[in-house]
Design a protein that fits this description.
Elements (H helix, E strand, L loop, with lengths): L56 H11 L23 E2 L11 E3 L3 E3 L14 E4 L5 E4 L4 E8 L7 E8 L5 E5 L16 E8 L15 E11 L8 E8 L4 E9 L4 E7 L5 E2 L11 E4 L13 E7 L6 E11 L7 E9 L2 E9 L21 E9 L7
Parallel strand pairs: 5-11
Antiparallel strand pairs: 1-19, 2-9, 3-8, 4-6, 6-9, 7-8, 7-10, 10-11, 12-16, 12-18, 13-14, 13-17, 15-16, 17-20, 18-19
This protein binds calcium ion (2 copies).
Length: about 400
């Protein structure tokens, strides 16, 4: 058996100080629908906006996309039962339309050029609080969620939207809150619980410079707004943007708990990139391994494997996630796997519970044969990427 070693990324990421509590992306209750069979490019609809209530979920999203143009946005759709990991396409993202130069993206958010409005001190105004504590680690190109709880003395239906700003970045985002529709509710038993989905396209600082080695921090501000235009107090979430290698092919694992899951990618040659084989000859490498043996890089909760531009061999890739060891007493852990393949991004979801098994995915012959501790998340095909500019 191969013992876990200190990950290469350790020196770059201050591990123990971080507590990343990433809300489960699988909680998009109002958007369940049959998943598309494979990663697909999201097509812009050609017709005009249509009455959303009469449409199926897919058409409703497309109508929304029209409504929020212009402005960058991320579209996250789909969702399968958490147990249905095998081949489950959970969601995919699409973005288009830019009006201001910001690397940030907010699901269904319209990017506005002016600064976010000040808090208004009204007793009838909405209330807003974070549902999780701690710094949130952000990796470029990977969706994140901010878990919030919203309230209003006039009832939840009085809330019409949210303002979201990132400190020292231009403009701010506005996300409409439509009950039973776009943001709320996340959980019928907790109707004030919402998640705002966001991400950063590149690890770009407010001055436009790109972080290439050291992580940097920024602050995310969120306020709720009601029909009378009362603006709640801003809640603040500290974000740590962690630069990682980039390329035509990237696979990122995100877990909901500080526990030891491991990411494996088998490339067309049969070589497997994982913590025991961090780099292969063509440049494919694991540059972030979280919670290794419950002792190293704790709380990062992301793993990342990439092939530098032009290095990813054409052919078939398999992504596996292993439950190496539970660091949380066997409590369930939800995970997502984000696959970026020649400019297309697809997100998959799964769950483990129990204690784990260190060797489940370790040997190529074991891959795909131990579903309780080693889950085969997706097989995808890489063709030579077209010029991505
Ligand atoms: Ca109100
Ligand atoms: Ca790990």
């Amino acid at each position: 058996m191969q013992l876990k070693t200190t990950p290469a990324a350790r020196s770059r990421v201050p591990g123990r100080a971080l507590i990343l509590l990433l809300p489960a992306l699988v909680m998009i209750g109002c958007r369940k629908q049959d998943a598309p069979p494979e990663a697909q490019r999201h097509e812009r609809p050609t017709g005009g906006p249509t009455e959303a209530a009469e449409l199926d979920p897919m058409a409703r999203f497309e109508a929304m996309m029209l409504r929020y143009t212009p402005g960058p946005h991320v579209v996250v759709e789909g969702g399968l039962p958490r147990e249905e990991v095998r081949g489950s396409v959970f969601a995919w993202m699409s973005r288009e339309g830019r009006t201001i130069d910001t690397p940030w993206l907010v699901l269904n958010g319209q990017l506005l050029a002016h600064r976010a409005p000040d808090t208004s001190l009204s007793s009838r105004g909405p209330g807003l609080e974070l549902r999780r504590d701690g710094i949130q680690t952000i990796i470029a190109g990977v969706p994140n969620a901010l878990a919030l709880r919203v309230s209003d003395p006039d009832g939840l239906t009085d809330i019409v939207g949210f303002h979201i700003a990132f400190q020292d970045y231009l403009g701010h985002f506005y996300v409409p809150a439509m009950i039973g529709g776009e943001v709320m509710p996340e959980d019928p038993s907790d109707p004030g619980a919402i998640s705002l989905h966001f991400g950063v396209e590149t690890p770009q600082r407010p001055d436009g410079s790109l972080a290439t080695h050291e992580p940097f921090q920024t602050t995310m501000y969120v306020a709720a707004i009601d029909r009378a235009r009362n603006v709640s107090q801003y809640v603040t979430q500290q974000l740590q943007v962690t630069p990682l290698g980039t390329g035509d092919v990237e696979v990122t694992l995100t877990m909901s708990q500080a526990t030891d899951l491991d990411l494996y990618v088998r490339e067309p040659s049969g070589a497997v990139v994982y913590y025991g084989n961090e780099r292969v000859a063509n440049g494919g490498q694991l540059d972030l391994d979280a919670n290794a043996a419950c002792d190293s890089n704790m709380g990062i909760n992301n793993e990342h494997i990439f092939w530098p531009a032009g290095a990813a061999p054409a052919g078939s890739y398999d992504v596996m996630v292993a439950h190496y060891e539970s660091c949380v007493g066997g409590a369930p852990v939800d995970y997502t796997v984000t696959v970026e393949n020649c400019g297309e991004t697809v997100v998959f979801a799964g769950r483990f519970a129990g204690g784990g098994d260190a060797e489940a995915c370790m040997h190529p012959s074991n891959l795909d044969s131990r579903p309780e501790w080693c889950q085969h998340v997706v097989k995808f095909q890489v063709d030579p990427c077209e010029d991505l500019q």
